[in-house]
Queue: 2 jobs
Job 1
Amino acid sequence: MMLVAGIFISCEKDDPGEIPGEIPGMGNAGGELEVLEPFVLPEGISIVGEITGINGTQGTLDGGISPYMESSVKAKYDKEITRGSGDNDVVLDFVIENSTSVTKEFFLPRGCVFKCLSEGRQNGLSCQKILIRVLAGIRLKLRLHCHCLNKGIPGSSLETEYEIMGVSSSKRITKLVEKLESKKIDISDFSPEEKGKYKEISTRIKKIVHSITNGSGVKDSDWKYIKSLKER
């Protein structure tokens, strides 16, 4: 009886109460992405124009700033940064304006999801908390490498637009991003010479995300891999 109880408790602990592959807005499950609460920008900060995708083959995976800028966002900007831990499947461009006379800081929270407004395209996930610092009176262009949430369908392109939804309410996604929070996986953590290592890590994490969205769940070997990643 004690053995059975132990097994039950163990299974209960590992089971977050949702079925992999059946999470709304992810994989092939259909439905809309569900969030704990909507994402809200701080006072004085706004997004100029739309959040647009870019052609994945033009994404920046070398830790540097890409000169490529052909998205539908035509707004002038003063500075550009590249962040995120995804590969080139879902790459987003948006221009953030600080209309105040003081520097503003805010976070894109871990587990933040981005809904694609174009039918039949990938939704995106930001795995780590990302600090955005916008100097007074300037426009900052953020290029964000997201992880894709719908294996098997096309990623971002110049014709796609996205909306920031907020932090995913998926318990499985929450557990994953909690484990990834302190790890060295952001593109800004890697030098141009470490491009290959970054691609290796982002590809492995993508497969782990897809095990939740399109598969049967994260395996023990995947958790061990995440644990083995370097701390920031």
Note: The chain is about 20% helix and 30% strand.
Job 2
Amino acid sequence: MGLDPEDDAFSDEIKREDGLERYWLFYNGEWAETVFGLLAAATAILWCFLYVLGYGETLAGYVIGGLAFFRFVGWYFVFKSLQRYESSGWQIGRKKYTNAEKWKIAVAAGLWIFILLFFGTALLRHRR
């Protein structure tokens, strides 16, 4: 009548069936965080080097600057996911958002989109 330690419902083993993100982060998370962080830093340093040489406002400078930004965002998402799983003890449960939190997230996303579009178009118009 006792619980069998080999029972799948109470197993501590990380399996692919429990979610690919969780499985992949469990086995490769620290490596991925390190590699993504180094790639983001190296690309940002390359952009700074181009900027000092006067090539920061060329097409190559914009591409490398954008690449550095997106690599930083990628590192950030890997870091936060890894941190979330480690703090929960690698449990599968998801956080439940309240309606107020959902509204805050929607408003914040809308404001960021507005800011990016407003300033992005202003910068592109000024550039042309």
Note: Confidence is low (pLDDT under 50) at residues 1-5.
